[in-house]
Design goal:
Chain C: The chain crosses the membrane at residues 20-39, 46-69, 81-100, 121-143, 179-199. The complex is a heterotrimer. Chain B is mainly alpha-helical. Chain B has helices spanning 2-10, 12-15, 21-53, 58-65, 71-82, 90-117, 121-129, 134-164, 177-185, 189-217, 220-223, 243-246. Classes of the chains: A alpha/beta, B mainly alpha, C mainly alpha.
Chain lengths: 307, 272, 215
């Protein structure tokens, strides 16, 4: 027993110790010949367009990179970085120089009590909230919002049209959503405070896992983006957000400020060409028709004389 | 960082509730145990049969090549394929357990097979000479003699499954993986690190318990004066605890070599 | 199959990255494990300490280690060095024991004979002990290679591209062929590593074949 205790003590101290030597320059880190993946920032150099880990973000990143290349900017993509909490760190530490973002989501990220819902006001307010070395270029008319989605049968049997209608039945329902939805202010806490809606259980799911779970009745409601083609594909019903809990979510390029000048012409032109219908159609091609984001992006740029 | 991890680990808010640390540990152990029990139900008889008859050794090689399969991919594939066929909570549990079972069959199978295979042929002949038949030889001679390697295979399996059960969180299951996955998604590294500490401690605790069991059930005749055995140095190769899971078995290994101390079974037992 | 046919370029690019992320740590890990394993043999008290410590490192879930690396190393969040260092830690954890046991498997009589022939210190280590330990070390290296190839795929979850991207993308867009392609590519890569190590082992231990022993 004594030895076991000793080993346990050793474990804890070793793991803790491991996380303690933060910032220490490990010689191995610089030895890696593969460490060149992260683009070097500076002046009018090359840019890396990052993306979050969902198909729409990947598609937008390809569109941005393609448009930049067409305007002579040396651009590459860094797909599937992760959630907002992670990729904003990557933008901060210079691993990436641009990322497709959503106006309202940025507002909620930088201010827990963000209240604006009008697209213009959201944009202006967010400009004031951004860290000094970040900049937003022009926003597009395209919106991709969070939504709470149920199957047609659930909507009919429980008479659901708006999120507020969930109040009576949510207590017996389960909600599927990406893990971060549970803590974000406009996620589970927001549903509670704005609509008084509390689901019985929360099931953290992402990607097709979430769509499949809703389709097969393993969750009763799901947090899916409004542009997600699986909604139409499966005849899901998106419940109206009457209180504007999810705010306005216009697609907008978020860039490193010192690079914004060289990226502005290309990315502003992209924003002008994007509408909610356009992005929904493009997304259908990648998610339902399984085309490559790169090819769909190239076709879009060609059709709009951007590439 | 350390201070915040310790604070997280000791805070009552972390531990309480349906989704608290206590509940997560129980879930985690449940998935792990379920997977090991099912895997053992398949792998132990199979290993005994292969070891006893010497037939179908390719099964052991095949199982070993399963190690190269990326757990994450297997999990996604099984979840998408099985998920729609099952309803309710089981739709999340079954795919994860299936993957974990596949993951831990190799160490258990190799352990059992190597253990039985390494039983001294003279011992086996002696048993036959005494009039024992097939199943009697297996039960009364081969299993007791192979026990050290069988148990070390099981220990490997447990360590592996506890570290790997964390990935189940990716397809919506509970367990300690929730702290890792949710922590990463929300940028809350303290709970990621805290969750990792708990996983490691849990793995070592379980291994310690199994090491104790091993000492109790293995015949003293096999361990032969267990004190000081592991300290004898050069003349005492301790390759056995890595080998049942790595090689397809060679007859040069004797059960008595499976020198064990708490924590040392973990060396070859990590996946994700 | 159609999906695979349309994406050979992507698969190869990801596979190349995968080879680096799994292979480089294998080399670095071996280089670090050699002196550590030797020390564990040389000072017997160090042996249980090193073995417990490496067993312990191996219980840390890879996902957590990957994510915590930037905090520990001070690297950028998407730096591939995060994955390389984490994988090197796992490799060392696995190989220290193997190296120590491999060196321990050299018969005492052989060592005495070498000493009698005038082999001393480093020369004895590189000329006699290490070559004779190759089979055991190679066996450990093969396990490490296979497990590295599998673990590296988890790095997709922290934004470092390699074959694991086929798995996550396939899951997000429900492209079964892509997931299967990712799995198969990983297995093939693991087999390649395995074959390479086996080949190296044969080249380094010609006497095994001469004796008709199994490799």
């Amino acid at each position: 027993m004594k030895r076991m205790t000793a080993v346990l003590a050793l474990t804890t101290t070793a793991i803790l110790g491991l996380s303690a030597c933060g910032g220490g320059g490990d010689p191995l880190a610089s030895e890696s010949p593969t460490a060149s993946g992260s683009g070097s920032s500076g002046g009018g150099g090359s840019v890396v367009v990052g993306s979050a880990d969902f198909p729409e973000s990947e598609l937008l990143a390809e569109i941005y990179a393609g448009a930049l290349k067409a305007k002579g900017v040396d651009a590459t993509t860094k797909p599937r970085i992760g959630s907002r909490e992670i990729y904003l760190k990557a933008l901060e530490d210079g691993s990436i120089q641009a990322i497709p973002e959503y106006t309202g989501a940025l507002g909620f990220f930088y201010d827990k009590n963000f209240k604006e819902t009008d697209p213009e006001k959201v944009y202006t307010a967010v400009e004031g909230l951004l860290p000094a070395d970040f900049a937003m270029l022009e926003k597009s008319a395209a919106e991709d919002n969070d939504s709470i989605v149920v199957t047609k049968e659930t909507a009919d049997s429980k008479k659901l049209k708006t999120i507020a209608d969930l109040k009576a039945s949510a207590g017996e329902m389960s909600l599927g959503a990406p893990p971060e939805f549970q803590k974000r202010p406009q996620g589970v806490p927001g549903l509670q405070s704005t609509y008084g809606v509390t689901f019985k259980t929360f099931r953290p799911l992402t990607g097709q896992g979430l769509v499949q779970a809703l389709k097969n009745g393993q969750v009763d409601a799901a947090n899916i983006f409004t542009t997600d083609p699986s909604i139409a594909e499966n005849g899901f019903v998106s419940l109206e957000d009457t209180e504007k809990l999810f705010g306005s979510q216009n697609i907008v390029p978020l860039v490193a400020k010192d690079q914004s000048e060289q990226m502005a012409p290309a990315l502003n032109a992209v924003s002008k060409a994007l509408t909610t219908e356009v992005i929904a159609e493009l997304l259908k091609q990648t998610v339902i028709d399984k085309k490559d984001a790169k090819d769909v992006a190239a076709q879009f740029l060609k059709d709009n004389n951007l590439g | 960082m350390i201070a915040s991890i310790l604070e997280w680990l000791t805070s009552s808010a972390t531990w309480s509730g349906e989704a608290g640390l206590g509940a997560r540990i129980v879930e985690h152990l449940w998935y792990s145990l379920l997977a090991v029990v099912i895997a053992a139900a398949v792998a132990v008889p199979l290993g005994l049969w292969v070891g006893h008859t010497g037939r179908a050794r390719w099964l052991v090689s095949l199982a070993n090549s399963l190690r190269a399969v990326p757990t994450l991919g297997l999990l996604f594939a099984v979840a998408l394929w099985l998920g729609p066929k099952i309803s309710g909570e089981l739709a999340f549990l079954i795919p994860s357990v299936v993957v974990l079972v596949i993951l831990v069959i190799p160490p258990i199978l190799s352990g059992v097979y190597a253990g039985v295979e390494a039983v001294d042929p003279a011992t086996r002949d002696a048993a036959r000479g005494m009039g024992m038949r097939g199943m009697e030889v297996v039960r009364q001679v081969e299993i007791p003699n192979a026990l050290p390697l069988i148990l070390s295979g099981l220990r490997s399996a447990f360590l592996q499954v506890i570290a790997t059960a964390t990935v189940a969180a990716y397809i919506g299951l509970g367990g300690l993986g929730r702290y890792l996955v949710d922590g990463i998604k929300t940028g809350d590294y303290v709970s990621t690190a805290g969750g990792a500490v708990v996983v490691s401690v849990l793995a070592l605790l379980v291994d310690g318990v199994l090491a104790l069991v091993q000492r109790l059930v293995v015949s003293p005749g096999l361990t032969g004066g267990r004190t000081g055995r592991t300290r004898r140095g050069r003349s005492e190769p301790t390759t056995a605890s890595t080998s049942p899971t790595t090689s397809t078995g060679s007859s040069t290994r004797s059960p008595a070599r499976s020198g064990m101390s708490a924590g040392d079974g973990g060396v070859d037992s990590h996946a994700t | 199959m159609e999906w695979v046919n349309d994406h050979w370029g992507d698969i190869f690019a990801l596979a190349r990255s995968h080879v680096w992320l799994a292979g480089l740590p294998l080399v670095l890990g071996l280089l670090i494990a050699l002196p550590l394993g030797w020390a564990a043999r040389r000072w017997s008290r160090l042996y249980p300490v090193l073995i417990s410590a490496s067993g312990l490192l191996y219980t840390i879930p890879s996902l957590a280690l990957f994510v915590l690396m930037p905090l520990i190393l001070g690297t950028r969040v998407l730096d591939r060095a995060n994955v390389v260092v984490a994988m090197t830690i796992y490799t060392v954890a696995l190989l220290v024991r193997t190296v120590a046991d491999g060196l321990g498997s050299v018969p005492e009589a052989t060592l005495q004979a070498a000493r009698a022939m005038g082999y001393k210190g480093l020369r004895r280590f590189f000329g006699v002990e290490l070559p004779l330990a190759v089979p055991v070390i190679a066996a450990g290296l093969r396990v490490a290679a296979v497990s590295n190839v599998s673990i590296v795929s988890v790095a997709s979850l922290i934004g470092v591209s390699q074959l694991g991207n086929l798995l996550t993308d396939g899951y997000d867009r429900f492209i079964t062929a892509e997931i299967v392609a990712g799995i198969v590519a990983c297995v093939v890569l693991a087999l390649l590593f395995d074959g390479l190590i086996l080949l190296g082992q044969r080249l380094l231990t010609p006497w095994v074949r001469a004796q008709g022993g199994r490799a």
